[in-house]
Design goal:
Elements: E1 2-8, H1 9-15, H2 19-25, H3 28-36, H4 40-58, H5 63-66, E2 70-75, E3 78-83, E4 87-96, E5 99-108, H6 117-120, E6 137-141, H7 148-160, E7 165-171, H8 175-181, E8 186-190, H9 199-209, E9 214-217, H10 227-237, E10 241-244, H11 247-252, E11 265-267, H12 271-278, H13 282-287, H14 289-300, E12 303-306, E13 312-314, E14 319-321, H15 334-346, H16 351-373, H17 380-385, H18 387-395
Parallel strand pairs: 6-7, 6-9, 7-8, 9-10, 10-11, 11-12
Antiparallel strand pairs: 1-5, 2-3, 3-4, 4-5, 12-13, 13-14
């Protein structure tokens, strides 16, 4: 059903002479948007027409406007409506002479997305009578000079995926940057420019890991000498769930024997990283993705997430092929976002379920970002920004 509304701009201008009118009708986001425009009154008239169009399309009452339960937001100057903080609808706004016209289509922006009911079952219910410690204390071990963004994205993604506390264990060289950048994350610094092995660094990391429910290793870590020894030592000592990505995978590629001595590890390589880990030719991997993934996971007793189009998740026995995601996600930092999502879920569920659910959520958030922005313009933070939308769709 379509909703259409027409607002007389001159009559609307008279209403705006009452300074309380704007603040009574519009949300803070709408007021900020309208005040930025040179044609301020015309802009607010268009927003008001859009709200009225939403009411007609959904057969609501005027209270939805007065209680600010309808909000008109913009992405790249394209408007859309949010109702009750959950329903997102297509709208258009135009101005003709002395009138503002708005049309609302009650079709959701995300109607084209069909949620996999089997994946939906993996979600863990959130007890209303709980506190932040109940949803996991997670840690990301990584970062280096010039690479603070990697751990930041992982931490933000873990928080958007429901963990209660997210700690970044980083070199002191980037600690100040992260403390300025990260409002919600907890920054725990280790005195070094980049991670490498020393007794002092190793012991400091162990102190930080004492009460953490899951650990991510690798985002932005770099490739310093002795990193392999440091990771071996940490993995040997930390017995809870671990996800290893990026530079963590590269550090392990010379010797992966530590994997067989730990029961709760998820590896998330793309094809080139898997080539380094498995020593198999790239061409052979690309032609036999499922076969080589299952064999590697089984031999090394790990969960393997082989990233790419149709990402594979396998423990060597059970395998899952993901069907969410798009080409816009082939962008710097996308893997760091996936690491953060997995990390959050690892703190509250079994590794295989955590990997499957997280890969699906990651791709779903990317698909939502594509609907809003297009594949060409997508960056990693757009995926993070739509994790919440992905979880809302999953919870419906």
């Amino acid at each position: 059903m379509l909703g259409i509304d027409l607002v007389d701009i001159n009559k609307f201008r008279m209403k705006c002479k009452n300074p309380k009118f704007i603040y009574k009708i519009f949300t803070d986001n709408e007021i900020h948007y309208g005040n930025k425009k040179g044609n301020r009154i015309e802009t607010f008239a268009g927003l008001f027409a859009a709200k009225e169009a939403v009411i007609k399309a959904l057969n609501l009452n005027l209270a939805y406007i007065l209680r600010k339960k309808i909000e008109i937001l913009h992405i790249n100057n394209k408007p859309y409506a949010v109702v009750d903080n959950k329903i997102e609808l297509e709208i258009s706004i135009s101005h003709q002479s002395d009138y503002a016209v708005a049309i609302c289509n009650n079709k959701s922006l995300f109607n084209e997305i069909i949620i996999d009911k089997n994946i939906k079952k993996l979600l863990v219910d959130r007890n209303e009578n709980s506190h932040k410690g109940d949803f996991g204390r997670v840690a990301i071990l990584g970062g280096s000079n010039g690479m603070s963004g990697s751990v930041y994205l992982s931490s933000l993604a873990s928080l958007r995926s429901g963990c209660g506390l997210s700690h970044i264990i980083c070199p002191s060289s980037i600690s100040n940057i992260l403390q300025i950048k990260s409002t919600e994350s907890i920054i725990e610094e280790v005195k070094c420019d980049n991670f490498h092995y020393s007794d002092e660094i190793y012991n400091k990391i162990l102190i930080y890991l004492k009460n953490k429910d899951s650990l991510a290793i690798g985002p932005g870590m770099g490739r310093a000498n002795g990193l392999n020894k440091l990771l071996f030592s940490v993995i040997k000592e930390y017995k809870k769930n671990i996800v290893i990505d990026a530079d963590g995978l590269n550090a392990l590629s010379d010797d992966i024997s530590i994997l067989k001595n730990h029961e709760n590890i998820i590896l998330t390589p793309h094809v080139m990283e898997f080539h380094r880990l498995s020593k198999l030719p790239l061409e052979y991997i690309n032609k036999n993705r499922m076969e080589v993934a299952k064999k590697f996971a089984k031999e090394n007793k790990i969960i393997l997430v082989l990233k790419g189009q149709k990402t594979i998740v396998t423990d060597g026995d059970y395998s899952y092929i993901n069907n969410t995601g798009n080409s816009g996600m082939a962008t710097a930092g996308s893997g760091d976002v996936l690491t953060g999502i997995i990390l959050a879920n690892l703190s509250i569920m079994k590794p295989l379920n955590a990997a499957i659910l997280s890969v699906y959520i990651h791709g779903l958030a990317g698909d939502i970002a594509k609907i809003k922005l297009g594949a060409d313009s997508m960056i990693a933070s757009d995926i993070v920004n739509n994790i919440s939308e992905a979880y809302k769709l999953m919870r419906k």
